[in-house]
Write a structure and sequence with these properties.
heterodimer, A: alpha+beta, Aldehyde Oxidoreductase, domain 3, B: alpha+beta, Ubiquitin-like (UB roll), five-stranded mixed β-sheet, 31% strand
Chain lengths: 156, 80
């Protein structure tokens, strides 16, 4: 079981290899990719920032919760930080269990908890040259012009 | 009054124009300190949507502050 904040490229195929074992009969993996649009805006790239020590601690806690709650064989996840291009894998979750039901449910649980609990922030860089921090609740740019004088999330 | 170190991340850092700040404060709790710095720097996010860590442990807003504490302020998170 391991959670990591990673500055380089995520390698889902390699990560998946650590999920297997004689007692594992099912495996579910999730990949979150950078897409080229959000809330009607054309997105050029994403930038993720994290407080890595606390994000790692909280990520490990979430994996442990999932293993206990869904009786998993094992679980792992990684979140990338830094500057990401369209199509890059930003987050990866992989779980294995004796039967498929537990793996599907646990994978969903882990990605949902990671998104709402980890100290990670996402800044969208738009085609028009502007950028803004994203608000996880609304999914909308919090502050598209990103100037130091505009209140955070003023247009929520 | 106590002396604390405040650290700001992501949008908070942009709005504060700095990532770390030494403060003298009469705030007794992390939440009271948030109210002070939110007013000073124009943070508009409700406390319930933000997170706080005291000395590198995630904490509740009613955590009591002590002289020398480092308080990390996290704006609403957006991983994934």
């Amino acid at each position: 079981m391991s959670f990591k904040i990673v500055a380089g490229k995520l390698e889902p195929e390699q990560l998946k290899r650590n999920l297997g074992g004689d007692a594992a009969g099912a495996c579910v993996c999730f990949e979150g990719w950078v897409r080229n649009h959000n809330e009607g805006e054309a997105v050029r790239a994403l930038e993720y920032e994290s407080h890595a020590p606390l994000a790692t601690k909280e990520g490990e806690k979430i994996l442990a919760e999932a293993v206990a709650k869904f009786e998993l064989y094992t679980a792992a996840a990684q979140h990338r930080i830094g500057y990401l291009a369209i199509g890059d894998c930003a987050v990866w979750v992989g779980v294995s269990s004796a039967h498929r039901g537990a793996s599907f449910e646990a994978c969903r649980y882990i990605i949902d908890e990671l998104k709402s609990r980890l100290p990670i922030w996402k800044k969208e860089h738009y085609r028009d040259g502007q950028s803004g921090w994203i608000n996880c609740i609304t999914g909308k740019p919090a502050d598209k012009d990103d100037s130091a004088t505009t209140p955070v999330s003023a247009n929520r | 009054m106590i002396g604390v170190t405040a650290r700001y991340f992501a949008a908070f850092r942009d709005h504060a124009g700095q990532d770390i700040e030494a403060l003298r404060t009469g705030a007794a709790t992390a939440g009271e300190l948030y109210a002070e710095i939110a007013a000073a720097h124009g943070f508009a996010d409700p406390m319930a949507r933000c997170k706080v860590a005291v000395n590198d442990e995630l904490a509740d807003w009613d955590t009591q502050l002590a002289d020398g504490d480092t308080v990390l302020f996290f704006p609403p998170v957006a991983g994934g």
